[in-house]
Structures are given as structure tokens and as C-alpha cells.
Automatic annotation (TrEMBL):
Keywords: Ribonucleoprotein, Ribosomal protein, RNA-binding, rRNA-binding. One of its GO terms (molecular function) is rRNA binding. It comes from the Bacteria. Residues 134-167 are annotated as: Disordered. This is 50S ribosomal protein L3. SUPFAM superfamilies: Translation proteins. It comes from Candidatus Falkowbacteria bacterium CG10_big_fil_rev_8_21_14_0_10_43_10. GO terms for biological process: translation.
Length: 167
């Protein structure tokens, strides 16, 4: 796991900076849903994007094999919303539900999922499951306090430099 994001509703959890949250929160056999960005396929025509059959290959049709045909009647004088046409295919947010966790490798930080996980390799995904998230504290609160003080000192140095520049 490279990144952990917490929703605002989950702010009351006891996760602090420096705590360890890993894949050991999941168990074999858990049912999860995964959200990710599907692979982008660029601009595609209606045959590939919407599985149109295209026009006939003979009987007066020239260079119209993969065209959509009519896109509406003459009377309304506009194209209705939702008319299937060529355009951007893929590169959209997709959620796949009811996927099973087959194996948990806590040493490598890997989950083995049975099913279709959306997105390319090494892309970010959101895994949502049921149950409690396990959090292990790596450092005590006294050890993490000096880091905050160092950040405060750096902020005060930056303020001093800005004051000197203004003068």
C-alpha cells in the first residue's frame, strides 16, 4: 500500500501520523469493492465504442462501412441528448463490486483479488471492505512530538525571512 486517504466522516478514527495501516486489515474470503480509473483508449468510433454493426459492404455504399448512419429525424432539427456517437472511450471512474480477497501477503503489502480490477498496472485504486481497520502504533506520542516542533521552527524561520524581505 503506497497511500492511505481518509474520508471526512472517518476523521474520528485513532489514526495518527506515523501509525502503520497495512493490508493485514483484510482477511482471505472478504468481499470488497474496488474503484479505479479504467484504461483510456482514446477517440473511438461507434463500431468499437457502442458495438454498432456498420453499414452494408455493397449496394451503393462507398466509404460508409463504419459510420453510425442516421442520428435523428429531420423534424426536431437537433440531435437528442444521449445519442450514441463516437468519442472518448475509457479513462473513466469505474467501481467493481463483490470481488473476493483470495490471499493476503502482509510481508510484501499485497492483496490478491479474484475478479476484474479496473485500471492499469500500478494505478491508484480505492479498496472498500467491511470490518474494522487495524492500526498499529509505530512510535509513541512523545517521539512524534519533536517533529511537530521542528515544523514550527521552520515556519518561524520562513516568517522571519518574509519580514526581512518586506522591510
Amino acid at each position: 500500500m503506497r497511500e492511505l486517504r481518509i474520508k471526512k466522516e472517518q476523521d474520528n478514527m485513532e489514526i495518527k501520523r506515523g501509525d502503520i495501516v497495512d493490508v493485514s486489515s483484510f482477511n482471505e474470503g472478504d468481499i470488497v469493492q474496488i474503484t479505479g480509473t479504467s484504461k483510456g483508449k482514446g477517440f473511438q468510433g461507434v463500431v468499437k465504442r457502442h458495438r454498432f454493426h456498420g453499414g452494408p459492404k455493397s449496394h451503393g455504399h462507398k466509404d460508409q462501412l463504419r459510420m453510425p448512419g442516421s442520428i435523428g429525424a429531420k423534424g426536431p432539427a437537433h440531435v437528442f441528448k444521449g445519442t450514441r456517437m463516437g468519442g472518448q472511450m475509457g479513462n473513466e471512474r469505474i467501481t467493481t463490486k463483490n470481488l473476493e480477497v483470495v490471499k493476503v501477503d502482509a510481508g510484501q503489502g499485497e492483496l490478491y483479488i479474484k475478479g476484474a480490477v479496473p485500471g492499469a498496472r500500478n494505478s491508484f485504486i480505492i479498496i472498500q471492505g467491511e470490518g474494522e481497520m487495524e492500526v498499529r502504533s509505530m512510535k509513541s506520542e512523545t517521539e512524534s512530538a519533536p517533529k511537530e516542533k521542528v515544523e514550527d521552527k521552520e515556519a518561524s524561520k520562513q516568517e522571519q525571512v518574509m519580514d526581512e524581505v518586506r522591510e
